[in-house]
Amino acid sequence: MNMTTFSTIFSNPVFLNFIKGPMVWLSFIIFGLGLIVQTFRLLKLTQIKEARRVAPEEDLSPQTDLSGWERFTRYLAFRRVSVLGSNACLVLISVIFHVCLVVTPIFVMGHNVMLDTSFGINLISFPEQISDILTKFVIAGGLIFLMRRLFLRRVRMISTVNDFILLFVAVAPFLTGFLAYHHIFNYQVMIVLHILCGELMLILIPFSKFFHMVFFFISRFMIVSEHSMGTPKRSWQF
Amino acid sequence: MGTTTEINTDTIQSILKQNKKQIKLGLAMCAHCSLCAESCFLFVSHDNDPEYMPSYKFINSIGKLYKKKGKVSRQVLEDMRDLVFEKCALCTRCYCPFGIDIPALITLGRNVCRSQGLFREYDREW
Ligand code: HEM
Ligand code: SF4
Ligand code: SF4
User: Fold this and answer.
1) Residues of chain B numbered 25-64 and touching chain A (CB < 8 Å)
2) Domain range for residue B110?
3) Which residues of B touch A90 (CB under 8 A)?
4) Would the pLDDT of A52 be above 90?
């Protein structure tokens, strides 16, 4: 099939109306309900537990009277155990990738114009040039992750086909959106692919490793562990 | 070397069944990102040999057993023993950004090995 055949299928009004209407609703419903159900299932694996005392009370309470030097050495010690110390560059890339991945779709002009015309909901949008840059960050981040997976032995050794597919699922909506916006290849085909990829990504988030967006916060903020953050009270109860 | 040469698949399967939720969650949530590598002193002290990477060790021990539903050969299990006993000291220093409890999963790998008479070989020459 060449681009023109794709184009005829993709410009079929019944098909177009379906993926632009009911399919969008369906995707968001599966995404939302999926997140709720999966989060509930995850929480059922945890239980509130009385904290076990591992040190005298005074050693556990946060120390506020640290000298600047002590703070500095503690920071260095923290850097040694955390991924911020061992993989600072990758963490930075990953944070940029994730922030752009989540923020761009919400503030992209094109999405908000549709929200406005359909429901009269008027959200703030980024200027188009900004969205364009954020999109490029996501694509670049995806490329770096792909290169790591292909060429770094330690990543390749634990990679599965699924990792490649899901990386593609995460980046595809941005790639197709970028190509459509710049009218590279066939606009009609690209915009339809963009819609389909976006819907696929939403549907897969609760049921794939993308569910880490919830797991991360539960496991780091709600489960007691050496590296937990905040004041968690739960532990795993498998 | 263990005393038996046979594998008792039933015992392995019952360990897998008992810990199914924990194994499944760990395997599903691991992003295969390799960020845990440097947190393992054995990884660092073995010239960054990926076989010492914490995620590699749990994926290829309890993870592999889970995927194969406990049906593995003696040879595979012996290699697994090397992974979970010789290549991990269970010091619990591994750090995963998601908070996956890697030592707990490696411990399960050890449980399975132990149930088949495979332990650390202290007198082994490397
Ligand atoms: C909003 C909360 C989220 C948090 C806190 C989060 C956190 C993380 C962390 C800690 C990693 C592992 C290490 C790394 O590669 O940096 C990771 C990897 C990844 N995340 Fe997220 N994530 C979130 C949401 C998402 C979403 C919504 C998606 C996509 C739909 C996504 C896609 C990915 C991908 C594809 C990887 C693996 C990159 C690779 O191939 O190495 N994340 N995430
Ligand atoms: S265990 Fe954690 S740090 Fe290690 S590869 Fe899996 S997700 Fe990454
Ligand atoms: S528990 Fe094992 S894998 Fe984890 S840091 Fe210690 S030796 Fe490495």
Assistant:
1) 25, 28-35, 37-39, 48, 50-51, 53, 55-56, 59
2) 9-115
3) 35
4) no
Q: Total structural domains in chain B?
A: 1
Query: Is the Cβ pair B99, A90 closer than 8 Å?
Result: no
Beta bridge partners of A234: A48, A223
Cα separation, B58 vs A158, in Å, equals: 10
How many angstroms separate the alpha carbon of residue B40 from the centre of ligand 3? 5
| A137 has a chain B CB within 8 A of its CB | no
Residue B1 has pLDDT above 50, yes or no: no
| Residue B123 within a domain | no
Best B35, B51, B96 residue to mutate vs chain A (most A CBs within 10 Å): B35
Residue B4 lies in a domain: no
Task: Record the tokens describing residue A20, joined without a space.
Answer: 């632009």
d(CA B93, CA B41): 8
Place of tokens 């359909």: A118
**Strand (E) positions, A69-220?**
none
Query: Under an 8 A CB cutoff, do B38 and A86 touch?
Result: yes
Residues from chain A contacting residue B48 (CB–CB below 8 Å): 154
Res B2 pLDDT > 60? no
**What residue's CA is closest to ligand 3, atom 4?**
B94
User: What's the half-sphere exposure (Cβ side, CA atoms, 13 Å) at A15?
Assistant: 13
CATH number at residue B56: 1.10.1060
Tell me whether residue B59 is in a domain: yes
Beta-carbon separation of B53 and A82 below 8 A: no
Give domain status of residue B89, yes or no.
yes
pLDDT at position B69 over 60: yes
% of chain A residues with pLDDT over 70: 93
Lowest mean pLDDT across A20-24, A55-59, A187-191, B89-93: A55-59
- Could you tell me the pTM of the whole model? 0.90
Between CA A98 and CA A205 the distance in angstroms is 14
Nearest-CB residue to A87 (from B28, B30, B38): B38
Which two tokens mark A228?
Answer: 């937990």
Reduced to 3 states (helix: H, G, I; strand: E, B; else coil), residue A106 is helix
- Whose CA is closest to B15, among A124, A28, A238, A100? A238
